[in-house]
């Protein structure tokens, strides 16, 4: 457990500008917990490949994914949990209308969270700096072998210069896509899986596509990057892939 102590009497403090918790005039000290089971085999915590302080715009639909990659190939499960207090222990106190599982002020019916992928979708309706804490559980052969937490501050601004590009999986060679094009269910017997991403921008701006955390053995490439009409291409031979959820 990390209790917020960073040496020389200092502490990992939360900002007093966070809008969804009671922080007082000096904020609060954060704490994080992680567990790891190495009794039967080597194990490492998953890696997070996206930034912990993302920026969004009020009134514009948004998505966030922690981009976790497990170096041991363990199955991952996600949950939204309360922020922990360093020193005194316990959890943060959420203001009325907020909770660990509903940490953002959003337009009605727009908030959703996937325990399978960690994907968080929402349309923020006010300017805010909201505390969001993600917990990731690792399973190997159905047995819990580790947990970790990531604390984030979601910053929502009042105005932005344009809307973000959007895109979803398409042209999958096998399996079934959900309606949003963000989750693909496929059998390993399908052989080599391929699909495309074709993002578009509402204002017709040039788009730059970057990627990280591709599963081991998979490939990803982009044609016509830094244009208004680019295509991302994913390919993965599933024949030796352990069944599970992959981001």
How are helices and strands ordered from N to C?
EEEEEEEEEEEEEEEEEE
Number of helices: 0
From the N-terminal CA to the C-terminal CA, the straight-line distance is 27 Å
Oligomer: single chain
Mean pLDDT: 90
Count of strand segments: 18
**Largest β sheet strand count, sense and barrel closure:** 5 strands, mixed
Please tell me how large the radius of gyration is: 20 Å
Unreliable parts: none
What's the overall geometry? globular
Structural class, by secondary structure, is: mainly beta
> Helix amount, in percent?
under 10%
> DSSP strand (E) fraction?
25-35%
Chain-wise SSE layout:
Blueprint: E1 30-31, E2 35-36, E3 47-48, E4 55-57, E5 62-64, E6 68-69, E7 75-80, E8 84-85, E9 112-113, E10 120-122, E11 128-140, E12 143-157, E13 169-170, E14 176-177, E15 184-185, E16 192-197, E17 219-223, E18 231-237
Parallel strand pairs: 4-12
Antiparallel strand pairs: 1-8, 2-12, 3-6, 5-10, 7-11, 9-10, 11-12, 13-16, 14-15, 16-18, 17-18
């Amino acid at each position: 457990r990390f209790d917020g102590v960073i040496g020389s009497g200092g502490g990992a403090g939360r900002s007093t500008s966070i809008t969804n918790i009671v922080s007082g005039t000096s904020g609060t000290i954060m704490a994080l917990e992680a567990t790891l089971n190495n009794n039967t085999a080597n194990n490492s915590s998953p890696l997070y490949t996206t930034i912990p302080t993302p920026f969004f715009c009020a009134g514009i639909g948004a998505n966030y994914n922690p981009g976790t990659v497990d170096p041991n190939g363990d199955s991952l499960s996600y949950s939204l949990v309360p922020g922990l207090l360093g020193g005194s222990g316990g959890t943060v106190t959420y203001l009325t209308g907020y909770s660990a599982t509903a940490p953002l002020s959003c337009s009605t019916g727009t908030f959703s969270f996937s325990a399978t992928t960690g994907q968080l979708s929402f349309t923020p309706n006010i300017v805010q700096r909201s505390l969001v804490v993600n917990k990731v559980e690792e399973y190997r052969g159905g047995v819990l072998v580790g947990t970790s937490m990531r604390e984030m501050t979601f910053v929502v601004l009042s105005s932005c210069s344009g809307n973000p590009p959007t895109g979803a999986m398409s042209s999958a060679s096998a399996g079934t896509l959900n309606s949003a094009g963000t989750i693909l269910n496929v059998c390993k017997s399908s052989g080599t899986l391929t699909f495309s991403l074709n993002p578009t921008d509402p204002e017709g701006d040039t788009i730059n596509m970057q990627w990280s955390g591709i599963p081991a053995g998979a490939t990803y490439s982009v044609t016509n990057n830094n244009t208004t009409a680019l295509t991302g291409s994913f390919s993965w031979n599933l024949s030796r892939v352990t069944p599970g959820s992959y981001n």
